Amino acid sequence: MNYNLEIEKIIERIKEKNHKTILLQLADGLKPEAKNIVDTIEKETNTTVLIWFGSCFGACDTPFGLTQLGVDLTVQFGHNVFIKNPKGW
Amino acid sequence: MDNLLINAEYKEEIKLTDETLNYCKKFKTIALYSSIQFSSNLDKILSQLKEANINVITSQPERTNSQSQILGCDLSYKNLKLTQKPDAFLYIGDGIFHPRALVLSQKDEENFKEVIRFDPITNQHYILNLKDVDKILKTYKGALIKFLHSDSIGVIITLKPGQQQFNPSKQLKEKYPNKKFYFFIDNNIDFSKAEDFPFIQCWVNTACPRIGFDDAPNLPIPIINLTEALNIE
Question: In angstroms, rounded to a whole number, what is the distance separating the alpha carbons of residues A41 and A22?
């Protein structure tokens, strides 16, 4: 894999905040990496890791309604911070 | 809820091929952009262009959080926030979605500047011009005319927090008091469902503006984006 997925950084955050339920959201080209990421995180931490099945068009495209599943950390791969203009596009 | 964004930065060194560098020498000033995977990995390319006596400019476009990064939604030239006009754009990345934004951002500019897309994975370059978006722009102009002549308008609003534009869309009623606006809500915007509402003559997309450009030519209904609907003189 030629892209830095920073899994160590994610594990560090999980341990630091004692997160238990994690959601991974991956840009399309990175979706095949989901298995490796889930396996590594679950091996290194006491967590349940979920994978977002739907779209991941950008940092503008984040899932909602996750609290009902008890998700306490979402990790989106492939996108940087998106600065929304509240006045429109 | 806690959130993390992972840029998935490309780990290998990237540099222009001799062929691409020679092509770039045609231009005195080049504006350099990339997707986030490559935007922190442009040092070698910058030094190559500098050694070739090419003036390189860049910016942090309106919705980005990083210098040289381009997003698919920064579709107007002013959103790029360039302080100097380039002779061409050079985009570093392996997809077509982002460099096409650089083409569409020039749709209202008097002098179009070509977009050189260099793919650092295949080491090939491709040239993008206005003719590559000809069908998109023709469809769009047709939809604008249809909007102006329609009385019954459907406004589609996404629930995605980053793309939700409910408040700005309310301005439509003020700007066009003689039109009737019907507001529709969904999560993923799929305009193939639009045919279920035959009383709508034209649609206004308020979600990702690329829906109004890239998707519209493949749909049997007229769609314009909120920005254009609010800015028609």
Answer: 9
Strand order in B202-205's β-sheet? Answer: B180-186, B152-158, B202-205, B223-225
Task: Check CB contact under 8 Å for B11 and A64.
Answer: no
Structure pTM? 0.93
Over residues A16-71, the pLDDT tens digits come to 999 999 999 999 999 999 999 999 999 999 999 999 999 999 999 999 889 999 99
Domain A7-77 maps to which CATH number in 3.90.550.10, 3.40.50.300, 3.40.50.11840, 3.40.50.2300? Answer: 3.40.50.11840
Report phi then psi at B54, rounded to 5. Answer: -100, 130
- Does the interface ipTM go beyond 0.85? yes
User: Nearest-5° angle of CA A86, CA B2, CA B4?
Assistant: 80
The residues of A whose Cβ lies within 8 A of any Cβ of B are 2-6, 9-10, 13, 17, 19, 27, 30, 54-55, 57-62, 64, 66-67, 71-89
